[in-house]
Amino acid sequence: MTAPLTQTIDVIATPAKVQNVNPVNLLCFFLNCATQLGYGLFMPVAQVIPCNAYGVAVGFFSIITCWCLARRDEKADRWNCQACASTIFILGLSVLIIVYAGVGGERAPGRVGSLGMLVGIIMYAAPLSVLQEVIRTKSSAPLPVMQIFLGFLNSLCWLAVGLRNQKLPVWAPNVFGMLLSLIQLVLILKYPAKQESDVEAAEENPAPPLKEHVAADFVRSRTGELAETVAEISVLVKSVSGIFENNPNMCMEHNTNESTDSQEKETVAGEATNSPADAPVLLGRFGRGHKDRADAVKKAVEEDGAAASQERRSVQL
């Protein structure tokens, strides 16, 4: 419910950013909260009232603030006459819905609740009203990151509750809400809020992007780094697999060494069992054999290291 407020605070600090605020998002948010508030007040459902009352206050404050700032900005094209008519219509419709829930009879709150499910789906789909612009300019600046992300989490939680309680009116609309939010998140990750290489987009949308897009840029960069790391690991795995496929003798030698060691162990163990008195001598002989191998390998490595050091000194001289 606080997501639109973060946008509004950012716009108050930088009034030019009102160009990137889509009035459709705020109006649908306000209508959804007002519908749910009417349902909660007169059904009654006490748990629904506080959060939606807060949402109505946040939505109303955000709408009025953006309108005040948009009137001073000639480039705020989204806040035009059509947006003004839509604002008046949504505010009036919200009042009528609450009044109907209170005086419309016993079935009125239930009908308002059913209407609230439809309005909720519309609210989740509202950011897609600028889909054509986002694809054309390849910029996600008009999409409200916080509202979309928190809406996705909200739908996910209510979907889990609805499925657990087997309540169709609870989980059905949240399936649509989750899918719509997921589509919008994909668009945000695919298209940054502003591309400096796209001169035309920068001229059409000169306002700086909202601060909430910084988090999206961070996630986008980390996702790219993760994809590169996964690609490097897959290439390394393929290379190692190719080496073993092209040189099957390596695996055979390794298996031969292991089988030889196991045979030696079995032989020593058998001799030690048959001659308990000679067991320490046999085991010591087996241990010395492995120790001699390790010493030989260590000596070879030291000789290679000395030779490499001698070569480096010769080059330096």
TrEMBL record:
It is found in: Cell membrane; Golgi apparatus membrane. Keywords: Cell membrane, Golgi apparatus, Membrane, Repeat, Sugar transport, Transmembrane, Transmembrane helix, Transport. GO terms for cellular component: Golgi membrane; plasma membrane. Gene3D superfamilies: 1.20.1280.290. The keyword Hydrolase does not apply. It is a multi-pass membrane protein. PANTHER family: RAG1-ACTIVATING PROTEIN 1, SUGAR TRANSPORTER SWEET1. Belongs to the SWEET sugar transporter family. This is Sugar transporter SWEET1. The gene is SWEET7B.
